[in-house]
Write a structure and sequence with these properties.
The complex is a heterodimer. In chain A, helix 4 crosses helix 5. In chain A, the strands form 2 sheets. Chain A has a 6-stranded mixed sheet, sandwiched between helices. In chain A, strand 1 and strand 2 form a beta hairpin. Helices cover 39% and strands 23% of the residues of chain A. By secondary structure, chain A is an alpha/beta fold. Chain B has one domain: ABC transporter involved in vitamin B12 uptake, BtuC (Orthogonal Bundle), CATH 1.10.3470.10. Chain B is built from 13 helices and no strands. Chain B starts with a helix and ends with a helix. Classes of the chains: A alpha/beta, B mainly alpha. The A-B interface holds A 58, 60, 79-80, 83-84, 86, 88, 90, 93-96, 98-102, 104-106, 108-110, 112-114, 141, 143, 159 and B 35, 37, 153-154, 156-157, 159-161, 163-170, 210-211, 214-218, 220. The structure holds adenosine-5'-diphosphate and magnesium ion. Magnesium ion (MG) binds at residues 50-51, 91, 171-172 of chain A.
């Protein structure tokens, strides 16, 4: 077992740069650290590199420049042991709708891999506890496709936290769930952070979601534009203006790119 | 003659025992293949096995062993290939299927036409199975089921979402390779029961039927194995009394169970809307 001291930062990223296909610079010299207990909101427009950043943190991408440490250890050197302390909910979980597992079975997936051996009763207790926390105890025999979008999201969060991780990473958790469910979701995230003492990183292109939850904010759009306390970010009009401008620029860049490639495909009409 | 009396024949006992074993492994392996949208992989491998069988017949080796070797190597090879150059699964099936068949056809033409042996592999020959073969089939099936029982949660998680499974620390690549080898062994082992041409029915039918029941994963697997065993046993018995080819009878029984399940489900569904109209009736009475 890894000797993880509670004093080291949860996440520590130093001069991280990433190129897709060794040519497209997606993350440009990102550095930041995240302390125990933080609820960090990563904001940035679509295409800013949020998912790419998470892939580096989780060791899914390995060919980056710079260092990524979790709990004070380098992820690439201790991937399995470090990830057993992490829960992850990906952006678009591509789940086959007819998949026959029930909610209880899906949540118990989270125990696999991270813990070498566990007893049946331990698994049962953990799954029950996770179901209680996300409020799905009455749905345990339902199948995934019988639940609403918001409930599916909560199942995946329960799966990601069933092994008592210290860090939870949620990639765009609020996209695709309705307003009513969103409030319930915010409540759940606050509870996980405050009561279960799980440090949380969540990404969003929606400032609203982050402003309601996070105590720390990192604003990225290929580069790091801001990192610090949420109240400083949301209290600073210039900061918000910069954010919207850079979002607009990305939008325009993509738009130009699209019209260019379209006109190449359709030379004359 | 009653059903109990036919159990006294040695060939019937061997057919039923090996049939039950093969039904269990085909449906267990098949559940993962079906859920990965890889239903035809079994078909592809059976054609590769056909190539392997003809190699054995051509070189005068024991054909079933060359079939095992050839199929395992081909299945691992294509998995490695799809990993590194991203061939879509349906294309990999097409490649395996046609190259396996091509090897078979070439070797058969070289050795001067179909032999009886090859025929029995194409269409199955469960009633001709020897005691030695029955023991081998039972032994292999127990081993395959044991490995699946150990790995089934991991395989289920990988089937659910490969990326999340990998982040949870599961060695996805290794698990996939082990699974592919198990699938290859299952297909070759089962060829003698239903033959190269009908094997994929045994892999697919019980599972799509079991999924219709809408239960959790474990229950779906158990229902599927039950359906597979039921179709094999009744298929063999029916084939004896009706004097028809057992492989055909087994597959048609599977189809019949599948159709019955769909019909029952639709009848149940068409009963349900009556309940849904209740609030509507209630509203009317309030008016
Ligand atoms: N696998 C990939 N190969 C090449 N480019 C990619 C890949 N994944 C993402 N990108 C590009 O990298 C940029 C950042 O993507 P991403 O990290 O998904 O952004 P976000 O999550 O903030 O929306 C985008 O321009 C996207 O097109
Ligand atoms: Mg993203």
């Amino acid at each position: 077992m890894l000797n993880i001291t509670s004093a080291s930062p949860i996440v520590e990223i130093d001069h991280l740069s990433y190129w897709y296909d060794s040519s497209f610079l997606t993350l440009d010299n990102i550095s930041f650290r995240m302390e125990q207990g933080d609820l960090l909101g990563i904001i940035g427009p679509n295409g800013a590199g949020k998912t790419t950043l998470f892939s580096c943190i989780l060791g899914i991408l390995t060919d980056y420049r710079g260092t990524v440490k979790l709990f004070g250890k380098e992820i690439l050197k201790n991937r399995k042991a470090l990830l057993s302390e992490v829960g992850y909910v990906p952006q678009h979980a591509s789940i086959e709708q007819s998949f026959p597992a029930n909610i209880e079975e899906i949540i118990s997936f989270g125990l696999l891999g991270s813990i070498e051996k566990y007893s049946r009763s331990y698994a049962k207790d953990q799954v029950l506890k996770a179901m209680q926390i996300v409020g799905l105890t009455d749905k345990k025999n339902k199948r995934f496709n019988e639940l609403s979008g918001g409930q599916q999201q909560r199942v995946l969060i329960a799966k990601a936290m069933v092994h008592n991780p210290r860090l939870l990473i949620l990639d765009e958790p609020t996209s695709g769930i309705d307003q009513e469910t969103q409030d319930r979701f915010y409540e759940l995230i606050r509870k996980l952070n405050a009561e279960e003492k799980i440090s949380i990183i969540l990404s969003s292109h929606d400032l609203d979601a982050v402003s309601k939850l996070a105590n720390k904010v990192a604003c990225i759009n290929r580069k790091m534009h801001f990192h610090g306390d949420a109240k400083d970010f949301f209290g600073d009009e210039n900061m918000l203006k910069t954010y919207y401008e850079s979002a607009m620029q990305t939008h325009l860049r993509l738009h130009q790119f699209n019209t260019k490639s379209n006109s190449q495909q359709l030379p004359s009409t | 003659m009653t059903i109990l009396e036919i159990l006294e024949f040695g060939f019937m006992q061997r057919a039923l025992i090996s049939g039950i074993a093969v039904a269990a492994i085909c449906s267990a392996i098949g559940l993962f293949l079906v859920l990965r949208k890889h239903s035809l992989f079994g078909d592809a491998m059976s054609h590769v096995a056909f190539g392997g069988l003809s190699i054995g017949l051509f070189l005068n080796l024991y054909p079933i062993w060359t079939a095992y070797a050839f199929t395992i190597i081909a299945a691992l090879g294509i998995t490695k290939m799809t990993d590194s150059i991203k061939i879509p699964p349906d294309s990999s099936v097409a490649i395996l299927l046609s190259s396996g068949l091509a090897v078979g056809i070439v070797l058969i033409s070289l050795s001067g036409g179909f032999s009886l042996d090859l025929f029995s592999f194409l269409f199955g020959s469960i009633l001709l199975i020897s005691t030695q073969d029955t023991i081998t089939i039972v032994f292999l099936s127990i081993a395959i089921l044991a490995i699946i029982a150990i790995m089934y949660r991991r395989l289920m998680y990988i089937t659910f979402d490969e990326k999340q499974a990998s982040v949870s620390g599961i060695n996805v690549k290794l698990a996939n390779y082990i699974f592919i080898v198990l699938a290859a062994i299952t297909v070759v082992t089962s060829i003698r029961l239903v033959g190269v041409l009908l094997i994929s029915a045994l892999i697919v039918l019980p599972n799509i039927t079991a999924i219709l029941f809408g239960r959790g994963f474990k229950k779906t697997a158990i229902i599927s194995i039950g359906i597979a065993i039921a179709s094999v046993v009744s298929g063999i018995v029916i084939s004896y009394f009706a004097n028809i080819a057992p492989a055909g009878a087994i597959v048609l029984t599977g189809v019949a169970i599948f159709l019955c399940t769909i019909v029952t489900r639709n009848i149940r569904k068409s009963i349900r809307p009556i309940k849904i109209t209740e609030p509507y009736l209630h509203n009317r009475s309030q008016e």
